[in-house]
Amino acid sequence: MNMLSVKNLTVFYENAIAINKLSISVNKDEIVGVIGPNSAGKTTLMNTISGLMLDTKLKEDRRGGIRISIFGTIEFLGENISNTWPDKRVRKGIALCRERHPVFGESDVEENLKISGYLSSKEQLKESLSLVYDTFPKLLAMRRRKAGLMSGGEQQMLAIGIALMARPRLLLLDEPLLGLSPNIQAQLVEAIKKIKQQTNMTILITEQFARPLIPIIDRGYVIENGMFAFGGNKDELYGNPDVRKAYFGVDYDEE
Amino acid sequence: MLLSVLVYGFINSVILAMVALGFSITFGISRVANFSHGGFYILGGIFTWYGLIKLGMPYFLSAGLSIIIIGALGALMYKVILIRLRGLELSEVIATLSLGIVILELLRGLGVFGYEFRNPVFMDGSVDILGVGVGIQRIIIVCAGALLLILLHFFVHHTKMGLAFRGVAQQEHTALSVGINPDLVSMLSLAMGSVMCALSAVLILPLGVISVDEGYDILIKALAVCIIGGLESTLGVLVAAFIIGYIEVLTSMYISSALTSVVPLACMLGILLVRPSGIFGKSKEIEERV
Ligand SMILES: Nc1ncnc2c1ncn2[C@@H]1O[C@H](COP(=O)(O)OP(=O)(O)OP(=O)(O)O)[C@@H](O)[C@H]1O
Ligand SMILES: [Mg+2]
After folding, report:
1. Which residues of A touch B (CB under 8 A)?
2. At A180, which CATH number?
3. Residues ≥6 apart with Cβ < 8 Å to A213
4. Which has the closest alpha carbon to A237: A251, A219, A250?
């Protein structure tokens, strides 16, 4: 069943094109990767899917800042949500874990999670809390720690936890592995796999490199300069020499 | 003499804190500096007076209604005016300041002046504290202030909406991406700040006459306390209120009561020179914010 379909999405910042006629679809129960180098448009894509871009655009318009233009459509479960505000999209089931883990720095871990359970009932809140603590036992141990004082890896776990608290059907993860050591990356990938198993959430995940994602994704898109460059299942991704060279960190000689 | 400085300084400080708290809460959550604070304060007092004296309502009803109306006015101001100006700080200040001045000057034009405009104290009489006679109204103010702080703390840390307030205050886009509507939160923060403003008017105005000029005075005091404390820190508001509160009382007792109105401004300028972000501004003790 098709869950998300992005059709012909085009996003401009002033006259610079960040996303160029991009179409992407995600089926229910899939984990789909979006792979692309710096400034390929991954964050722009994720923010547009979650709707945050509408808010950014509005604020820029109000202050007479940069002009953002968005074209194309975004459908979620068959419904056109292109003009739906981000908080409404969360109610429909889309939650975004933003790039570079912007957590609520002055609140402790537990308060971060409680804030993010805004839409949940009391029972749901309890349930989500135990899912998050179960997935990231480290967070449980640090539940009274002020979020702003945690390490990058810990904050990233919390950021994912924050998105989980919204109990999404479609979880968007924007570069969750950015800037983390291979060890922590492996832990997070493991956690994402576990989340998938326990909740059957559908997941769309962006990353600069494909290698760490390969164990978990079903399919992937490669985007460059905001444009579709390649797409396929993981064997197809790995089978393409250009993709392998650019996004798997595999050298020619290794072949 | 010393004891009365102690006692009256304390009470004066609590009054300042109450006056400033509404301003600080709104700013801490939504970043709107509500310069119509003084206008709302006097309007709240006049509504209470009108209901009580002119319409013959019971005191608590008239006061309660006034507080609700002022809260709604704050929300309305956000919904109608401020929502279009979000992020344009100067425009926000100009809008709220103009509204405040319009309210105050309108009241002046309508003839709000004189001894007639006076809300009675809740309860007559006085009690003896450390050998200093203190009117019951002042005792009520201090108790209400303490209660308000406790309620505020509970609200912010233990209710869903309070937690949403904290979320928006810290990371608007993260809050938005988990389903919190920042515009709703900002509107409620204005309503809440306005409610606290009107509540302080209801409690404090019976100590004197309701005058339009007091509205300007209150705005300056609230601003001074907030700037000195560090704009969005509740602890900062308390500390700053006590500093200014005691300096004011000392000035009026030992120097000249004509100079007390200069104290808040002088302290504010002093702080802006040495520590522009206020005693508890930003970075430091962020935990206390909201
Ligand atoms: N707020 C903005 N204003 C102007 N240009 C922007 C803005 N945000 C992004 N861009 C531009 O849009 C393009 C895509 O940026 P985006 O952040 O979406 O890329 P990304 O793939 O997430 O990159 P990274 O891997 O570095 O996070 C870039 O060229 C960037 O400079
Ligand atoms: Mg990015």
Report:
1. 50, 52, 55, 59, 62-63, 85-87, 90-91, 95-98, 102-107, 111, 114-116, 118-119, 146, 148, 162-163, 165-166
2. 3.40.50.300
3. A33, A35, A189, A205, A207, A220
4. A219
- Which residue's CA is minimally distant from atom 2 of ligand 1? A13
Domain limits for position B264? 2-289
Beta strand residue intervals within chain B, DSSP E: 126-129, 132-135
Rg (CA), chain B: 19
Residue B265 identity:
L
List of chain A residues whose C-beta atoms are within 8 Å of the C-beta of residue B173: 52, 55, 98, 102
Atom of ligand 1 nearest to the CA of A47: 18
Task: Tell me, yes or no, whether A188 and A129 share the same domain.
Answer: no
Which residues crowd ion ligand 2, with CB under 5 Å? Answer: A 42-43, 99
What does the alpha-carbon distance between residue A104 and residue B167 come to, in Å, rounded to a whole number? 6
Residues A75, A17 share a domain: yes
Cross-chain CB nearest to A106 (options B163, B179, B287): B287
The total number of structural domains that make up chain A: 2
Residues A84 and A178 in one domain: yes
> Are residues A127 and A185 both part of a single domain?
no
Q: How many domains does chain B have?
A: 1
- Check B164 against A95: CB less than 8 A apart: no
- In this structure, the answer to whether residues A88 and A108 fall within a common structural domain is no
Q: Is B85 in Cβ contact with A118 (below 8 Å)?
A: no
Residue A20 belongs to what domain range?
1-93+171-255
In this prediction the ipTM stands at: 0.92
Residues A114, B126: Cα–Cα separation, whole Å: 46
What pLDDT, in 10s, does the model give residues A66-112? Answer: 999 999 999 999 999 999 999 999 999 999 999 999 999 999 999 99
Q: pTM of the predicted model, to two decimals?
A: 0.90
Checking DSSP bridges between strand A68-76 and strand A2-13, what pairing results, if any? antiparallel
Same domain, A88 and A204: yes
**A6-63 pLDDT, tens per residue?**
999 999 999 999 999 999 999 999 999 999 999 999 999 999 999 999 999 999 998 8
State both tokens at A75: 């459908």
Residue at which a domain ends, from A167, A194, A221? A167
- Alpha carbon of B168 to ligand 2 centroid (Å): 22
Structure tokens at A221: 């898109």
Q: Do B179 and A118 touch (CB under 8 A)?
A: yes
